[in-house]
Amino acid sequence: xxxxxxxxxxxxxxxxxxxxxxxxxxxxxxxxxxxxxxxxxxxxxxxxxxxxxxxxxxxxxxxxxxxxxxxxxxxxxxxxxxxxxxxxxxxxxxxxxxxxxxxxxxxxxxxxxxxxxxxxxxxxxxxxxxxxxxxxxxxxxxxxxxxxxxxxxxxxxxxxxxxxxxxxxxxxxxxxxxxxxxxxxxxxxxxxxxxxxxxxxxxxxxxxxxxxxxxxxxxxxxxxxxxxxxxxxxxxxxxxxxxxxxxxxxxxxxxxxxxxxxxxxxxxxxxxxxxxxxxxxxxxxxxxxxxxxxxxxxxxxxxxxxxxxxxxxxxxxxxxxxxxxxxxxxxxxxxxxxxxxxxxxxxxxxxxxxxxxxxxxxxxxxxxxxxxxxxxx
Length: 377
Ligand SMILES: *Cc1c(COP(=O)(O)O)cnc(C)c1O
Description:
Strand order of the largest sheet: 4-3-5-8
Bound molecules: pyridoxal-5'-phosphate
Largest sheet: 4 strands, parallel
Low-confidence stretches: none
C-alpha cells in the first residue's frame, strides 16, 4: 500500500506510545463486517500470537480480547474472578494498584488493601502474613510495574506466595507486556493483561487478558457483577463463534496484527535491550542537566523515570511541556501524590537518538524560561 508522510512525534508519556508508520498504515484497509469469517480468522491468529508473547502454553492458557482501554482488564479480572464468599488481596504500592482497590469498592467485592510506601517495592513478609491471617483470600492482585512511579514489583515471588496459600495470582502487566520478558509459567502468573497501545506499539482501543483456561471455565459459577465486562461470557462467545460478543475495534485489530509481526521480527531480547538503552539515555540526559529523580534506580522497571520538579520559581511543567510538545516531544505529568514529579518513559518505537534530540529541546526550554535546576533539602 502506498504510504503517507506522517509527522513522527516522540511520545515520552507512558502510552499510547510512538508507533511505526507500517503499524499506522495497517489500519487503512477495505471496509469489512467483523462478523465475517475472514475477520474471525484474523482474531484467532492474534489470540494465539498473544500467548506466545508471554510464553503461555496453549493447552493451559487462553487470551480473551476486549474493546476498551487498559483499565477494562482490571475491571474484568476483578469482577469476574472472585468466587462467592471469598476475598481479593490487593498488594498496593501505588496509583495503578489503587485503581484495582477502587474497582473492588465499586463492585462491593470483599477485599484487603495491603497498602505500602509508593517509593518501595511491596514487602513480601507482609504479603505472606496477610495470606496467613486470611484463609478466605482466593485472588492475589498486584501490578507488575507501577507506571505511576516506575517501580518494578516482584511478581514471581508474590505469585509463588499466592499459590503456596491456595490463591490465584492476577497481575496487571499493562505497562510491561511486550517490553520486559514475561513467562507466565515461570513467573507464577495465572492472569495477566495489557492493551495494544503500550508494549506492543499498536493503537488504543484493544485490550486483552491472558489467563488460565481452567480458571475461566470455573468462573462460570462465580457471582456475575457486570454484563459487558464479564470474562467468562466473552471467553465463551469466542469459543463458540470466534468473535467478540459485541463490536470489536476493527482497525485497531489490524494495527495490532502488524505490530505483533514487528514484535516477533525485532525479538523479545532485542526489544527489551532497546527499551533499556533508551531508559539509560533518559537517566544520562537528566543527570547531565542536573535533574533529580524520585525513585531508587535499583528498583525501577527501566520503562518510566519519575523526575522531581526543580525548586526554581521559574519552573513550570506546563510551559516546558508546551515548548517540547510544539517541537514533537511529549512529556507527561507525574502520579505521586506526595512529591511533584513528571515522567519520561522509554516505551514505543524510539531509540537513543530520539532521546538525545529530546534533551537538546529540553535544554533549550530551560534556557528560554530561565529555569535553574536547583533543589533544596
Ligand atoms: C496504562 C495502564 C493501565 C490502563 O490505563 P488506560 O488509561 O485505561 O489505558 C492500567 N494499568 C497500568 C499499570 C498501566 O500502565
